[in-house]
Amino acid sequence: MIPELDWREFRSDPQAFVDALGRACRDPGFFLLSGHGIPSDLIAAVFDQAARFFARPDHEKAPLSILSNPHNRGWAAEGSERLDETSGQVDRKQAFNIGLDLAADDPRVRAGEAFRGVNVWPDLPGFRDTMLAYYDAALALGVGLHRAFARDLGLATDFFDDKFDAPLATLRLLAYPPGTGAEGEIGAGAHTDYGSVTLLLTDGEAGLQVRPRGGDWMDVPHVPGAFVVNIGDCLMRWTNDIYVSTPHRVLPPRRARASVAFFLDPNPDAVISALPGTGEAKYPPVTGAAYLRQRLDATYSRD
Predict the structure, then answer these.
(1) Whole-prediction pTM
(2) 13: which residues sit within 8 A by CB, 6+ positions away?
(3) CATH for 4-297, among 3.40.30.10, 2.60.120.330, 1.25.40.20, 2.170.270.10?
(4) pLDDT at 302 over 90
């Protein structure tokens, strides 16, 4: 059972919200979030712009390839990712990644810091402005959720604020073609997310499944306008396994499927180590950038 939470309750009855959030983060590691306040017209514009981009022929998208970008930005062609590292199944999807928007003369870009590059953009009117407006809105929501996490974990409410003030957050547009019925076909292979928390919106087409600890695969319900939110491996590690990052996958859809994911990873220099009060550390400390690099290197086929 995936619970539904209302973000407005964090303001009206914060302890009730935090209690429900804490239960969801410990099991099943997924929840639905309504009442988030991101305008529906902005969300619709994001889906519309994404559809316009993915409808372009591959040769027009190829100059923006993520495989030639060291900063995890740009277009991922169908067949370029294997999220299921065990089976090696190749994902049937396209994606487009957008990171923190930095200018070419930003000192972090000029210094060649990890994942600190400029975004790449298709030549589509309104695309950049729409995506950056949504990026900012999703980031604000993600930072707000970390304040609720902090309260649940017995930390100062602002504990995470300075770990996410220049984050390795990625807005990822996704397009899945209809399934063909071929044996072993998968939209996105079974995996857990890399970062701290993921905020996902879908067009309502079925396909997303989650496998709670000790359970079987189950469909994730669609609630119009609500985010599907899940804990990522980074936050599970940070909480010393108090929160759980749960495997999920996308089955080949019956019809073309679109989704918009916002992966919130911490600042590149944020140190991910067992939080105060979580007991003896189960993992060695690692920076946000080093952890993300480990995970991305296992995802892309560059041969």
Answers:
(1) 0.95
(2) none
(3) 2.60.120.330
(4) no
